[in-house]
Structures are given as C-alpha cells and as structure tokens.
Amino acid sequence: MADRHTHSVGLVEPITLHVGEPMALDCGKTLSQFDLVYETYGTLNAARSNAILICHALSGNHHAAGYHNETDAKPGWWDKCIGPGKMIDTNRFFVVSLANLGGYNGSTGPHSLHPETGRYYGPDFPVLTCGDWVRSQDILRDALDIDQWAAVVGGSLGGMQVMQWSIDYPDRLAHAIVIAAAPKLSAQNIAFNEIARQAIVTDPEFHGGRYYEHDVVPRRGLMLARMLGHITYLSDEAMRAKFGRDLRAGRINYGFDVEFQVESYLRYQGQSFVDRFDANTYLLMTKALDYFDPAYATGGDLAAAFAPVTARFLVVSFSSDWRFSPARSREIVDALVDAGKQVSYAEVTSDLGHDDFLLTLPHYVNSLRGYLGRVADEAGT
Amino acid sequence: MNTLLTQTHNGIRDDLALISNWITPGARVLDLGCGDGNLLAHLQRTKDITGYGLEIDADNVIACIEAGVNVLQLDLDAGLDQFEDNSFDFVVMSSALQEVQRPDELIDEMVRIGHDSIVTFPNFGHWRPRMSLGLRGLMPVSRALPNRWYDTPNIHLCTVRDFEGLCESKQVDIVRRHVVNHAHRSNIGMRTFPNLLGEIALYQLRRHTGI
Question: Which of A68, A71, A70, A65 shows the shortest CA–CA distance to A86?
Fold first, then answer.
C-alpha cells in the first residue's frame, strides 16, 4: 500500500462541471444541459501553460489515475502511466481527465435523467461523434481558464479525439500525442463493433434500450460484446503465451462448460465488465468509433483534413497491435508529412497487442517521456 | 550507421559538417538513417531547416525525440513510396548507402523525392582496402571501415568509380563531389585521384532533367 502514496497521485476526487448552455451535436440534436465529470492530477502553474488533457478510449472514464478510496482494489485506468515521475509526470504537468458525454457513472449519458421528462435518456440519448466530444472538452478547457493545452494525449479512440482536437481547435493545443489509433475504422473494425452491438440489442433484457426502467441489465449481450472486444485487444501470440491450450481441470470433459483457460479468462473479463459499464454507452462509444473519419469532409484526403493543424505530433504504434496496426498509424504520419506538419513516429516492438498502450514498455515510455520533457521545458514547468 | 566518423569539438561530426555546408537555409530536409538526429538538430539550429529523419533503431529514435528532431521510425528497406515526388529540397543519406538492401533503388527514390540529394559513403577503392585485399588477401579493416567481415553492417560497399557508374547508368546528375580522408580533409592528391586517395566520398545528386 506504500506504493499508493509514493508512486501515485494518491486519493483523488471527481469534480462535476454543470453546463447550462445548450450544445448542438453533429447528429442535429441538441443537449440542453449536461454535466462533465473530470479529475485533475498535479498542479497548474502560474502561467497556466502546463495542462495536459487525457482523452479516454472505449471503456475509459474520468478516473485515469490514483484512488477514490483507501480501500479501492484498483487505481485509475492509466495509473501505470500518469503520476509523479511516471510517463506523464504529475510533478511537471497539470493533468485533466474527463469522462466523455454518453459515458457511464460520469458525465451525462444514457443512464442520466432527461431534464425535461425526468426519465432515463436510455435509447433517446443522442448518438455522439468525436467532434461532439471535443466540443464538450473545449467547454471544460474554457471553464478551467486554460488558454492552450500543453498537450492532448489519447490512446485508441482517445487518439482519434486528439486528431479531432488538432483539426477543430488548432490554436488550443501545442502538442498532439496519438497512441495506437487509426485515421478511421476499417470494414473489419466496424464489423467487430457491429457484432458487439448486435449481441447487446438482441439480448432479451435490452428492452429497446429502456432496461433501466425494467430494473434489469442486458448482461449476456454486454458480456459477449466485451469478450469479443478483448480478443481484438490481445495479439495471437499474447493469448498463446498467456493461456496456450491449458485446461482448467487438467483434462478434456467433452462438454460446453468452461474447459480452456482462455474461456475462463474471457468470461471473467466479460462478467466483471457488466458490473462497471452500461450497454447503451457501449453502443454509443462504438458508433463514435465507426463514424470517426476526419478526411470525409475533404473527399478522403487526410492531408487536406490536417491542413489547419498547428500542433506538433507524436504518433506511437505497437508492432503486435492488430486492432489498430502500425500501418494505420503510418497513414496518420504520412498525411501529416504530406501536409508539411511537424510529426515524430515511434513504432514500439511489443507482444501484447492493442492493450500495450496502457502499459509501460521501455521504448514506449521513453519516447513519450522524451517528448513530454521538451513539452514541459516549453511550458516553462 | 557507421560510427567511424569522428566527433569534433563543435559537437557535430565532420562529415555532417561537410553535408551541412551544402544545405541551403530554410530548406525542407529528409535525412535517411538519421541516427541520433545530430545533423538535423545542427541544421535546425544553424540553418533554420524543417524536415524529418528516418531511423529504424529504437534508441536512436528516442535520442531524436529528446533532441527535438522530427523522427519517423521506418525501415529504409521497406521503401519510400509514401513520400511525394519532389517533396523535399534535400534528401540526405550519410554513411547508410552501403547498409541498405538495394542502394540502386534507394538512389532512385532519393532523386525522385528530393530536388537535391546528398550521399556519403566509405570509398572501398581507397588504396588501403586495395592493399589489404590485394597484397594481404584480407578484407580491409580501417578507420573508415572499422568492422570485420563477419560483423559489418556494410553489405554493399562500393568505390567512387562504382558509384559514378551507377549514377551514369541511371542518368542521375552529379552536381558536385567532395572526397576526403578519414579526418575529413581534402587535398590536391585526393582531388586528382579520388578513387585511390579518398576515404570518404560525398556527392550531391539531382535527377537528370533531360536537357
């Protein structure tokens, strides 16, 4: 437990920003009012120049680092990388991590009450895009009286928001750090998302998204969605190394219960996810992933989409990531080079797969540490 | 990249200082096999250039990032298709030509991508390697070629005449040539007999315009 206090941001408390002004969304609808829930780690300097925004991925939220209670079993989702002396060093930076709109147990989402009807939003919660998220994140930036982020950082779906920031609000960030992301989903990526969504919406307990009112949860659907997702977060090699064909009971039982260790692992991951996540949120998050395509507005020309960018980029990929492979990151890099933007690219040799971005491979950590060291010098911190 | 080239008191390798003299201020530069980013960092400081280094080694990539040099971790042998024609003022490759799978294809790519290209390589035609092989019957080991045959990264060593023959066959124009010894100094002998007396060769190339 000593580790909690020496290498961690320690106990943190979520803060709620209530936004009373309506916000127009890409889908054409408007959110009349909403809450943004966020946490901060480290100290904002006098010049207000050392703030880093963390954009989270599909299953993330505002709780990126530290603990909410002394008794918490686990710290925030990116605690390995955010903290004093860590990759994103809270001794130098003021780190802001928010829960995106549409999420669960954080900012306003399907599980919130509609301010006019007093009912749960459920399936009526508008479908969101990365553009909407970034617009809401900019409201938080303004509320925190931060003129420009020293850097905006995100992995996977978070990395897509970082790109969106650099295009939509070029003056509001000095650096963009895009980790294990892609410039848009492939047909295969969308296919995986669609299976996950079908698993949820065909669960008899989904009730067209109004399951809160029936006091049930589409457990099986959400569990299947997570199990499927987990397969794509790990490489074939990592699964082989972790589970092989190991049998739980040491022998084949000729049945359909859990026999192989990998089955047990996936069921555990799926079941524990159901307790901390919401099916409607899962649907929304996967849709935001599917829709992300900044080059859509420029006829498929990503370099043209990056034309407004002034931020300098660091792009990082992982060799064993097949969900968003290095080739996808190189598409981002190539477009930035074509657009004449400042960019560095590190391709980290890894074994685990997509989830490597949550961990601390030395090449990864040192690339980011080296880059952020210069960002901190620039920020005068 | 070879580490044969000596460090000087002003913090930049002599061969890089020579290359730097040929780069025009404000240029857009692509450095193939940029190592720790020494040349680009120097050019950023002294000539206000923009550009990128390409480098495969992870530790070098980190060194570049720490030095504030734009670096792309890419394998030169995987090709440079992603770079547009004539998209850089200079494409530089210092002491890496002899380490790549297909130097001829890379030269094609360099003159396609860059308005000008600068190439440096150790000259295998220098009298020392000739003596070593011709008289002693041993693969040469010298200050310019410090590795032994079994641990060398150099898989495509060539001479000044070999290189110029390749350029001629490709119709690549040699804008200028500079041949130096291992201390990066030149003299009248080297200028007269570059293939015999030059240890390191520097070339500025341009695609043939057909005029």
Answer: A65
Q: Indicate the number of domains in chain B.
A: 1
Q: Which chain B residues are Cβ-neighbours of A344 within 8 angstroms?
A: 61, 64-65, 69-72
Provide Rg for chain B, Cα atoms: 16
User: Between the CA of residue B103 and those of A182, A297, A345, A349, what are the distances in Å?
Assistant: 32, 40, 24, 26
Which of B73, B85, B89 should we substitute to test contact with A (largest number of A Cβ atoms within 10 Å)? B73
d(C-alpha A269, C-alpha A267), whole Å: 5
The minimum CA-CA distance between B73 and chain A, rounded to whole Å, is 5
Active-site position among A354, A355, A356, A367: A354
The 3-class SS string of A102-164 reads CCCCCCCCCCCECCCCCCECHHHCCCCCHHHHHHHHHHHHHHCCCCCECEEEEECHHHHHHHH
Element (H, E) at A222: helix A219-233
Q: Domain for residue B2, yes or no?
A: no
Q: How far is B66 from chain A (nearest CA, A)?
A: 5
Q: What radius of gyration, in Å, describes the C-alpha atoms of chain A?
A: 21
Size of interface A-B (CB pairs under 8 A): 53
Q: What is the pTM of this model?
A: 0.94
By CB atoms closer than 10 A (0-12, 13-18, 19+), residue B48 is: exposed
CATH of the domain at B83: 3.40.50.150
Q: Does B165 touch chain A (CB under 8 A)?
A: no
User: Of the candidates A189, A199, A190, which has an alpha carbon nearest to the alpha carbon of residue A224?
Assistant: A199
How near does any CA of chain B get to the CA of A91, in Å? 19
**Closest-approach residue (CA) in chain B for A327:** B74
Residue B1 lies in a domain: no
**Per-position pLDDT tens, chain A of length 381:** 445 566 899 999 999 999 999 999 999 999 999 999 999 999 999 999 999 999 999 999 999 999 999 999 999 999 999 999 999 999 999 999 999 999 998 899 999 999 999 999 999 999 999 999 999 999 999 999 999 999 999 999 999 999 999 999 999 999 999 999 999 999 999 999 999 999 999 999 999 999 999 999 999 999 999 999 999 999 999 999 999 998 988 888 898 888 899 999 999 999 999 999 999 999 999 999 999 999 999 999 999 999 999 999 999 999 999 999 999 999 999 999 999 999 999 999 999 999 999 999 999 999 999 999 999 999 998
Q: Which domain holds residue B163?
A: 8-207
Indicate whether B24 belongs to any domain.
yes
Q: Which residues contact A52 (CB under 8 A, 6 or more apart)?
A: A88, A93, A94, A95, A96, A149, A150, A151, A152, A153
Contact of A347 with chain B, judged by CB distance below 8 Å, is answered with yes
Confirm whether B18 is domain-assigned: yes
Percent of chain A as helix, strand, coil, to the nearest 5: 40, 15, 45
A272 is catalytic: no
Contacts of A7 (CB under 8 A, 6+ apart): A83, A84, A85, A86
